[in-house]
Amino acid sequence: MATSSSAAAASQALAALAISSHGSPSSSHPGSLALPGRLGSLAGRSLRSSPASLRFLRRSQPAPSSAKAAPARASAVEALQAAATESLVDKSVNAIRFLSVDAVEKANSGHPGLPMGCAPMGHILYDEIMKYNPKNPFWFNRDRFVLSAGHGCMLHYALLHLAGYDSVKIEDLKEFRQWGSRTPGHPENFETPGIEVTTGPLGQGIANAVGLALAEKHLAARFNKPDNEIIDHYTYVVLGDGCQMEGISNEACSLAGHWGLGKLIAFYDDNHISIDGNTDIAFTEDVIARFEALGWHTIWVKSGNTGYDDIRAAIKEAKSVKDKPTLIKVTTTIGYGSPNKANSYSVHGSALGAKEVDATRQNLAWAHEPFHVPEDVKSHWSRHVPEGAALEAEWNAKFAEYEKKYKEDAAELKGIISGELPAGWEKALPTYTPESPADATRNLSQQCLNALAKVLPGLLGGSADLASSNMTLLKMFGNFQKDTPEERNIRFGVREHGMGAICNGIALHSPGLIPYCATFFVFTDYMRAAMRISALSEAGVIYVMTHDSIGLGEDGPTHQPIEHLVSFRAMPNILMLRPADGNETAGAYKVAVLNKKRPSVLALSRQKLAQLPGTSVEGVEKGGYIISDNSTGNKPDFILIGTGSELEIAAKAADELRKEGKTVRVVSFVSWELFDEQSDEYKESVLPAAVTARISIEAGSTLGWEKIVGSKGKAIGIDRFGASAPAGKIYKEFGITAENIIATAKSL
Amino acid sequence: MATSSSAAAASQALAALAISSHGSPSSSHPGSLALPGRLGSLAGRSLRSSPASLRFLRRSQPAPSSAKAAPARASAVEALQAAATESLVDKSVNAIRFLSVDAVEKANSGHPGLPMGCAPMGHILYDEIMKYNPKNPFWFNRDRFVLSAGHGCMLHYALLHLAGYDSVKIEDLKEFRQWGSRTPGHPENFETPGIEVTTGPLGQGIANAVGLALAEKHLAARFNKPDNEIIDHYTYVVLGDGCQMEGISNEACSLAGHWGLGKLIAFYDDNHISIDGNTDIAFTEDVIARFEALGWHTIWVKSGNTGYDDIRAAIKEAKSVKDKPTLIKVTTTIGYGSPNKANSYSVHGSALGAKEVDATRQNLAWAHEPFHVPEDVKSHWSRHVPEGAALEAEWNAKFAEYEKKYKEDAAELKGIISGELPAGWEKALPTYTPESPADATRNLSQQCLNALAKVLPGLLGGSADLASSNMTLLKMFGNFQKDTPEERNIRFGVREHGMGAICNGIALHSPGLIPYCATFFVFTDYMRAAMRISALSEAGVIYVMTHDSIGLGEDGPTHQPIEHLVSFRAMPNILMLRPADGNETAGAYKVAVLNKKRPSVLALSRQKLAQLPGTSVEGVEKGGYIISDNSTGNKPDFILIGTGSELEIAAKAADELRKEGKTVRVVSFVSWELFDEQSDEYKESVLPAAVTARISIEAGSTLGWEKIVGSKGKAIGIDRFGASAPAGKIYKEFGITAENIIATAKSL
């Protein structure tokens, strides 16, 4: 049959190359086919002539390359030495595969396919290429690794385990995906030291990696000296077909190409399988050509399952290209080694099952018990602990030299490394009085940003092509660009989702980096997945979201947020802040900067707002507070509660009601989350249980306000889409007015 | 100076080509430079030697093309005729420009830059290329036009006005961006007949256009006959740099290339300016090369400001390529004609100002009052009303032929055109009894989808690479693919955002098309912007969102929705449904299909759920209803309220409490929106005001539940991120249990 003879031919081609890949006798399994190592497994596969195995073999043929040609010219002795080394590499690669297989099997849940296919590139990265210190996962100058295809996290856990990270002991691998373990179902930086960012939602990781590489390029440009390149690391990322299909990855990679992030090296695990089957059913674009269009250097390693030297050569080439990021497309077989499930979607996201695990052990001649790492593999990897310590020590010495010579820079850099804020930084924030001119909070925000940029060396950021609308430019700095990476204004283009994820990468690069990013508040819808990862992964990004209501006017309902405030109030571990004027904007920034492990969303107005008496930074820190009150004994007739641009309206209504002899308290409710964290006593002092005549006003959904105003109160808001018209007209038509508050108060 | 001589050279080159572009004497403005028409304006520009004007001229040089060569070979008489025609074209193009300029000026708000640059392509499309009937904007076989760069909507309004649409009279143009007008700040299909979809949020429109073209290709493949191609239209779209940067456009365009949507023709308005300035600051990728990588045919028209023939030739070429969509990159000058603002960001999103409007009038020799359309232009365009009527009549005759010959197909197609559902369709929905086997609602959803596919000819859809997890395959159909477009399973790949927007396009193509799309519920975060447009634009997409809580287990917090239910409850005009079992899932589908102008989100479980006594389709239609009660007189001791997978837990707790002698009512709260729409009497019958001992249970954020349970009730839910562990363990650890309900009930 044509098919089986093709398979046999391919198998022969592989056999001819087997000198660098046969297994050692000690590793041959009693029940194996008595052919050595991987060669045996391939011969075993070639007996079956299914299309799947054909594809498997076709992909396994190493591409002719200079790296392959070299051993043929080497002496016989060198060849034997190389063979012995590669045999250990084979064992190490198989150890990674089986740690993954066994952990998924024990959990009866997880994704074995990617680790089995990507084990070679994983091994080469962590064993041969990357600089890191297992005993200090937070060493500043480490190479960063991101598994963008986060479902394959057992690959990363296995690598961290072999490398000697304390966070992933063998017992942690046995607790994969169990309650309270350090090996959750997707990589989570806040659970497992050694994991840089939180991935799983596809495309986020590659965008995070762009942020990490941006941070390196920026800091290197700011702090490196001709005689001391104190910052010098690579960012490696593995992404799969799924990541490639996501729009966020195109956004982030377009920027990476634009910025020329030469130290970003991405491995595209080209295994042609996604959950729905062969990627041909939905993904037939030319990825290499797309990345070239995006300004990347590209390399194709056709032999990702076995072509160690091709992978090594590709990394070498990638490093030689300094002005472009590199995409290494590595063609692999998902579930490599599994005789019946490799190259099929069934190995993507389910345990292999006991029978197939056995068959895979036979096929790859892996005679070991589950979770066993052979001594020679252990011994081989054990050097990373001392080597890592030496790397860090060497760098510390380099830093000491740096500190001697460049005292001020060193101090600034230390702050970025440690996250410690300069003493008294908050004094830089502007203050306002009721006599200060009325202004839009987006403008007041720019005053804060520019004031902070002078005192916070880690503050950098930008907008998704709305800098002049969001008012986010730092006037004392230029644009972060390919040739001016020391600057701090980042121009993201119209790429909200990529922007958010890039900022997550920046925030998680160094504790002292404080990235901010900006767009219209309604377009948080474009970047919500990245914002949720900020919240989950404790990345203290500051989201500067302007045009925060119908107050933006004529652009109309596509641009007017309605449900967005409540949607973020419901999201865990994120602060939703809606300041009403200058002092509250300053307070919001103070809160945002201090909350390094909790991102902040600042909703800011397009329109001018008055500077209100009674607002304060301290008030903002409490989330909700009284800005005016003419009652005594904590018993006002009415409590009017507003946020942001509507606080002014509440204050006006209070003035009118007071004229009519009522006692009225006005409460600014700038952040629900912060108010929730106050003592019951404080809460009672602001919103006494006995006062049920409460009216809230906010130009957004009323959902959730029942909690604040109670069943006898009334929430004035907008539970429909907005409209295109001048802002004042819409406010009036929608009843977001002092008149409506007064009428409502009288009806209570 | 080098710069000015270059400008002069470019100007001469343009003068040499002026035969086909000079203005007629009657249009020359008294105050103009006395050079004819556009040539005069160019000469005027060449006097200024700023870099901006240089760029303008460089871009204005027409590319050598065969289309340009043709007039040179024509006879003198033909050249004169052509010149006369082109002079009218010039006038028409300028009429479009000035209607836009004048409307923005009057509103003192809007985006004049794009209409001024894109007027030539707009003119050619609406005046020369497209098939439509102005007096019936909903004629089924019309060509569809989408302005993806929606901020330039005055271009579209001007074209609709000239073409004779009743929706855009001259008085509507004068009311641009005003309260209640039919010319809102961005194109809104629900406000303005003739607008196909709602755009503005960038990238949505191009993805909508992919959906429109998909719908055409699908319907043509299903209904066309060798002797009667009853469905045969193009989809045209204009997108800008902003759309190109957005990830959603790459997602949708990758699919368009994969599907070979040959009748999709996209004009990329390459004007090199976005809000933040020259696109060079953030966007230096090679767009043409990227689209080629995505499988598109590409053409570059370098003379978009003036090269009418180049544009015409490009469209002809695009139509000749049947198996690929075409991207026509049209290099234009934003704000073309404005002497001081063209080619700068200042003309993007603000009115020109009176002075610059005057200068632009001079520059383009436009002597007319604001909003004036010259009689010859009016007369030229007036043919579209009779021609459109004739086109539709012709098509109606063709349909009559079709109906005679292909009766059944015609009946089915009629349903798709009209949106009328087949009588008794809802009887196809499966029914369940408490004895039916427990099952995940995602599986029950698949039963509903497959049952409905048999009776609803317009039902089609798919998943973002999770078909086997979302359970969305229609078993009786194959995959919609390039060569099998008649099939109904759409494979979107891992492209949630593109998927949502494509479904909006499908839904808005024909009232009878019912698209559904699917992913994990948490990944609505990736597509939320498209879902909001579904809601706003009244596109009845069915969102099949599985794995709807911590109940998905081991995948962990990145995959577990928490805040998502409330986030959609707060979104206007969208139904959030969370069915608890088979009957409720059937009910949810009934509601979803009937709500053609309101999208539905179905939150479905990964895990098995019992079929509960008391659930019903009718109950779902009311949003909230009693599934069991052992009280009398509408006075139970407790009301337990659950949704989806937690309704079973509420029912169990009720059983226990009843054993202890309590009277307990269990309420299913499957859709808050539907319950809100019921009469006060009905609401009181379900949730009597007098009963305050209410407990809700839902595996999601408690935010908003105060409204239902009241200040004396208690909401059991999850106000933190989830965790990676087996589902049962997480439920227990998070207290989403019957035990917790019982303990809470006793504490009330």
What do you see in this structure?
The structure is a homodimer of 748-residue chains. By secondary structure, chain A is of the alpha/beta class. Chain A is built from 30 helices and 21 strands. In chain A, the strands form 5 sheets. In chain A, strands 10-11-9-12-13-15-14 form a 7-stranded parallel sheet, with helices on both faces. In chain A, strands 1-2-3-7-6 form a 5-stranded parallel sheet, with helices on both faces. Chain A has a 5-stranded mixed sheet with strand order 17-19-18-20-21. In chain A, strand 20 (694-697), helix 28 (706-709) and strand 21 (714-716) form a beta-alpha-beta unit. In chain A, helix 1 packs parallel to helix 3. The radius of gyration of chain A is 30 Å and the shape is elongated. Chain A starts with a helix and ends with a helix. Mean pLDDT of chain A is 91; it is low at 1-74.
